[in-house]
Amino acid sequence: MPDFDVFDMPTFEQALTTNLELLKTLDLTYIPIEGDERLLLLEAFNYREVDKYHKFVAQLKSLLLLYAKSDALDIVAVDYGVSRLSGESDEAFRQRVADSVFWPFNGGLY
User: Fold this and answer.
1) Domain residue extents for the chain
2) Percent of the chain residues topping a pLDDT of 90
3) CA of 31: how far to CAs of 21, 25, 37, in Å?
4) What residues contact residue 97 under an 8 Å CB cut-off, 6+ apart?
């Protein structure tokens, strides 16, 4: 599957650098030192920010036909008017849902 890179999310280090610069504008005397309480707090916030981004992207991917799996694929297929056949694998179902775009009157069945 192709890589899913919709948002330009900075890495942890880039986000930390940006937030350190913001903190320095609020406190002109601040000099980050390893183990500093403010630096540790910023690192924790940046970790949460990056983690939330990755969770958001995972949720977003689960809504797309190409990336959806299991129950999420069943939910996506509803938009195409197709339901899973008994015992049908995700790959076969995904292909049938994609085919339903070209064969709209029979649920992807030829």
Assistant:
1) 12-61, 70-102
2) 33
3) 10, 11, 12
4) 65, 73, 76, 77, 80, 82, 108
| Helix residue ranges per DSSP H, 27-89 | 37-61, 70-78
Q: In whole angstroms, what is the distance from residue 10 CA to residue 12 CA?
A: 7
Backbone angles phi, psi at 32, to 5 degrees: -70, 130
In angstroms, the CA 2 to CA 61 distance is 12
Task: Share the mean pLDDT of the chain.
Answer: 84
**What is the value of pTM for the model shown?**
0.62
Q: What pLDDT, in 10s, does the model give residues 56-79?
A: 888 888 888 888 998 999 999 998
The CB density around residue 66, as the number of other CB atoms within 10 Å, is 11
Tokens of 33: 């030192």
CB proximity list for 46: less than 8 A, separation 6 or greater:
12, 15, 16, 19
**Which position has the token pair 């939910």?**
75
Question: Tell me, what DSSP letter sits at residue 2?
Answer: -
